Amino acid sequence: xxxxxxxxxxxxxxxxxxxxxxxxxxxxxxxxxxxxxxxxxxxxxxxxxxxxxxxxxxxxxxxxxxxxxxxxxxxxxxxxxxxxxxxxxxxxxxxxxxxxxxxxxxxxxxxxxxxxxxxxxxxxxxxxxxxxxxxxxxxxxxxxxxxxxxxxxxxxxxxxxxxxxxxxxxxxxxxxxxxxxxxxxxxxxxxxxxxxxxxxxxxxxxxxxxxxxxxxxxxxxxxxxxxxxxxxxxxxxxxxxxxxxxxxxxxxxxxxxxxxxxxxxxxxxxxxxxxxxxxxxxxxxxxxxxxxxxxxxxxxxxxxxxxxxxxxxxxxxxxxxxxxxxxxxxxxxxxxxxxxxxxxxxxxxxxxxxxxxxxxxxxxxxxxxxxxxxxxxxxxxxxxxxxxxxxxxxxxxxxxxxxxxxxxxxxxxxxxxxxxxxxxxxxxxxxxxxxxxxxxxxxxxxxxxxxxxxxxxxxxxxxxxxxxxxxxxxxxxxxxxxxxxxxxxxxxxxxxxxxxxxxxxxxxxxxxxxxxxxxxxxxxxxxxxxxxxxxxxxxxxxxxxxxxxxxxxxxxxxxxxxxxxxxxxxxxxxxxxxxxxxxxxxxxxxxxxxxxxxxxxxxxxxxxxxxxxxxxxxxxxxxxxxxxxxxxxxxxxxxxxxxxxxxxxxxxxxxxxxxxxxxxxxxxxxxxxxxxxxxxxxxxxxxxxxxxxxxxxxxxxxxxxxxxxxxxxxxxxxxxxxxxxxxxxxxxxxxxxxxxxxxxxxxxxxxxxxxxxxxxxxxxxxxxxxxxxxxxxxxxxxxxxxxxxxxxxxxxxxxxxxxxxxxxxxxxxxxxxxxxxxxxxxxxxxxxxxxxxxxxxxxxxxxxxxxxxxxxxxxxxxxxxxxxxxxxxxxxxxxxxxxxxxxxxxxxxxxxxxxxxxxxxxxxxxxxxxxxxxxxxxxxxxxxxxxxxxxxxxxxxxxxxxxxxxxxxxxxxxxxxxxxxxxxxxxxxxxxxxxxxxxxxxxxxxxxxxxxxxxxxxxxxxxxxx
Length: 1010
Description:
The chain is built from 20 helices and 51 strands. The chain is of the alpha+beta class. The longest helix is centred in the N-terminal third of the chain and has 21 residues, at 138-158.
């Protein structure tokens, strides 16, 4: 949990690794629950002599749940609401923990030996989630999910109190902005692709029997969560159409397919209401499946309601809201359930909750535990899975397959790739990521490591393979001639007058945005912020929730000052003391608040990494440059990116190597789209991979030498510049033209892009019928031929575009895809179904899904911009009638707007429109005024101003005809609404109706009067 600070968000991580170690150490001492009486209400347990029907697996799930529920006291039920559920010895019930991280393998795999020492338990670490999506292969991802589910069972068999069987994965938040720090955790910017991959992963985790789960996936994070900056206090404004068609879509699809067993709430607010207390969990999410769901809060979310969000005055009110909105399990206060038990108990005593509310949540929790086999006499069909399956040869093979299919060939001119291994005599493999593998915050520990250098040395066994990291080695000297030195064993850095050469050398890696890491040559470890604000060389890699290995070398006069640029410490908010000072003993401490008070160092370059890389590349037959990101530094949970470019020194390295050797291959190893415009213009071959686990090097090498034909495709748009993007806090992708669906610019690489070493020809697509009825389905068919000389896989992508509509429609929208493997010269016919229901969009005029009568272009191609053939289908649906504003209409159901935001109407339900400035406006298009109009009735709140005003116009917000104005009296509170009426000038016909709203008026609904 991060320390509280009034000027920093308090949205806590799911749990820091350091904290997990502490929890694991104490897990064996978690309390068991005795049967005690609640002060104000006691549910008598069932007589002990009654047969334990809940242990009979032949009974229906509901009957078993009700039998067990009837045996629990109220105190026992309340205790089950916390993440760490205590044992109930009198019923023979053991402890249960909700939540094990498993985004691309079982994560946080740390255990303790019998002596209490920390040991690392390795797991199969698959490519990062965005890399799994770049395979565009749901069948493969399902097999990945099976491995994760099996290994979760295996870890659970070792230590169930640490590794629970409810898995917090997958993340289905859509990647609408590549600057999001957690881009690596999501699948795609597209809801359909995200849903297909998530369904595959979830089904793989669960196993084939949804009633007897191998493990229980939970979808993260509901809803509209895509920024880390102030993530627990910012509100995502999502108009109804965007919410229904985009942000809800992947959640809805995965739950409707029974590929998940619940959702996790997000930290942000949605339309002004904290997601931790949003009514959607009951009102919307549970309508997508007939199965019971066990929904959980994200870590610390309930406390944010009274903390950073200040939404409720007491924790009793907050926890009552959490339960009543449909969240069942409290992930809060680490292993300490006491505060949750106290708050829920207080809520019951105050009448904020009833016992039936507690029962509802406990039913959902118990339903999950039953489906996991816990109460079956034999533990269920998956109970026998043991530790021997972890990192098995079979799992390694699937991992290598996934890592290989995740590689995307972005560019390949002059047949640079594949490399001819028999002809290459000298190869240069350079770059800071060439001989290292990085894991991310949600990774397990790698059981082994194959770097790109390792893989290429294996594949180019007959060649001389040279390696240079391409990073600078420097020394830092003070004005009085002392050098900063590091000890050979981890310890404090000091400035000394007579240093040993290697002790005074540090390797500097540039990660961009002004951040560098310093690696002490003395022992190969990274410099960290250490005890008593000293600098120590103790880290094998940058790591942990508080990444304390980040620095900036800031030019100052003729030298540089060293600025600590990491996160705050575990113990206190860091304040403004971020500059390094050499004290009178020579010790380096982070104790200065200003550059002027910091020690000035001369930065002496001992070895120019770029020049060294240029040297080894100059005489090589091929130069492979491996650059990219460090997942703990270049954006991650709680840290968004501000730029999309390569780190400046990495860019210099690439340009220098290419200048020395035109046969340069760029291997980009990172977690997100990167604006590599220079590389696209100059470098002949470019491949991209995520941080893909232990098999990264084998996968990349196999692709580079042609042992594998690349088949990965981009799951999100790669932009040319950050200037192509609106503000990261802007969530309305329709109005502000986000993602491939609406973006009108020219992307660097389009959604779905990826090249092959062979070529594919498409025939003309056909549809099985040219007319599609509302309940109907057609099949789109297209022949695909491998016209090249080698086998390969093509991802055939089906898009549609609705030509005419009442509402703005996407330029394109993915409706289906197939990945097909073809031998050289082979032809196949790809068939993809297309349902009329898939073409529906949300009609804000009537609050419903609508399939409009329209012609839809049906486009088949290799990416969103590489369309190979087009046909069309005429959909016989309905016409959206003109708006009827004579009935009460939710103000949020506008057609267009400016200067407004959406806000909570009350703390439990409803959404209203709030003006953010004077002159804000809403447009309701094509309003039917043929019956005439004489007035308007508006339900409004006005919390601050003595009097507000709403002007009613026809047509244009600025120049349209004024029909009248509605005075809005002060209501004293933003939740206090009143209904006001005003006369309007007569008007008839069909017009756009505009409300021009003054700040701080809040509009809930409106109705025209005849």
